[in-house]
Amino acid sequence: MIRFDGVTKQFPDGTTAVDRLDLEIVEGAFTVFVGPSGCGKTTSMRMINRMIAPSSGRIEVDGRDVASVDPVALRRGIGYVIQSAGLLPHRTVVDNVATVPVLTGTSRRQARREAMAVLERVGLDASLATRYPAQLSGGQQQRVGVARALAADPPILLMDEPFSAVDPVVREDLQKEMLRLQADLEKTIVFVTHDIDEAVRLGDRIAVFGTGGVLQQYDTPDRVLSSPATDFVASFVGRDRGYRGLSFRDGSSVPLHPLSTTRAESATEVRLEPSEWVLVVDEADRPRGWMDVTGLEGVRAGHSIDESTAAGGSLFPEGGDLRQALDAAISSPSGIGVAVRRDGSVLGGIDATEVLAVLAAQRGTEASERSRAFTESGPAAG
Predict the structure, then answer these.
(1) What is residue 293's three-state secondary structure?
(2) How far apart are CA 171 and CA 173, in angstroms?
């Protein structure tokens, strides 16, 4: 457990970065510190491993005041991942990952062997082990940074906006990888971000920090979205927090309908009315895009399929949530969302109005359950 007890950090210029922070992080939890720039979230995280000393208050890790622990010994049990990875440019990938185990006495040969296993765990091919950081993409560098932090198998992992410097597609892949790793490793993770969507997606619990380093709310992601504790939290999570909250609702009961599809090589044989759309799929039935009469005329005039199809919007993955289902429907140029199996092949079509009907049904069920619970907990009939 990590515990903040009345922790304040005030810098010499009089700036209060963290103001009387009380917070408990349970073992094995993925906790996200989120808030705007300058709200104290990074300062709070860095006080855990004594990179910054608090002005007052007490921070405990597993019941011990960190101020009483040698900082080097403390940091051996705490992995640290920063933005842009912070890799040593003159060392190969495998030696970057092996750095901490070698420093703590593991032989270089054994450390490299174990580093190869960690690289595989974070989804990096063994062929990258002998490359240098400059030879990697931004996403690969971040994976190496995570691998380096995990190499000594620390029980605690601190992550300071690790994915903010990569593009949105790579960022999403890294978030998926982080969730997979956490399900496998069950580390105590403290993750800092300014992105509420990232916080909602990753965190078991979210700590929302406000101006002046004041903790505004510490709760589960769905509670932060549905019941903001302060006006600041409501403003920070945004006016579309109800839409974000759909990510916590099961989408398995959304009806799926047959879709009109065609293979790319057969597109010229399609007959369409002006208002009709057809989904173009590849040889494995994976969607490539939607095509209407205009696109069909383009194909017949000699344009490629990719030039003649409209982007298909987002996809609803098998077993996904209501947010993914609704987004697939409303982002589709045809107005029909595309559901896909785990292998990417087309499963069926989704109608936005039916997604909303599922939401209404779920809310109705929840209201009935609350009413029944209230009745059962009330005074007995006399």
Answers:
(1) helix
(2) 5
- List CB contacts of 78: < 8 A, sequence separation 6 or more: 48, 49, 61, 154, 156, 157, 158
- DSSP calls for 133-199: GGGS-HHHHHHHHHHHHHTT--SEEEEESTTTTS-HHHHHHHHHHHHHHHHHH--EEEEEES-HHHH
Nearest to 260 by CA among 239, 286, 240, 279: 279
Strands 30-34 and 188-193: parallel
Beta strand pairing status for 56-61 and 2-10?
Answer: antiparallel
Helix, strand or coil, per DSSP, at residue 239: coil
Contact between 362 and 222 under an 8 Å Cβ cutoff? The reply is: no
Q: What is the dihedral of CA 87, 89, 95, 96, to 10 degrees?
A: 0
Tokens encoding 135:
């030879």
CA 297 → CA 266, 267, 304, 307, distances in Å?
14, 10, 11, 11
Residue labelled with tokens 């293979």: 263
Here the tokens at position 99 are: 């750095």
- Tens digits of per-residue pLDDT, 250-300? 999 999 999 989 888 887 888 888 888 989 899 899 999 898 888 888 878
pLDDT tens column, 40-96:
999 999 999 999 999 999 999 999 999 999 988 888 889 988 877 678 889 999 999
pLDDT, greater one: 7 or 122: 7
pTM summary value: 0.77
C-alpha to C-alpha distances, 362 to 359, 365, 366, 367, 369, nearest whole angstrom: 5, 5, 6, 9, 11
Show the tokens assigned to 84.
């842009």
- Neighbouring C-beta atoms of residue 146, cutoff 10 Å: 26
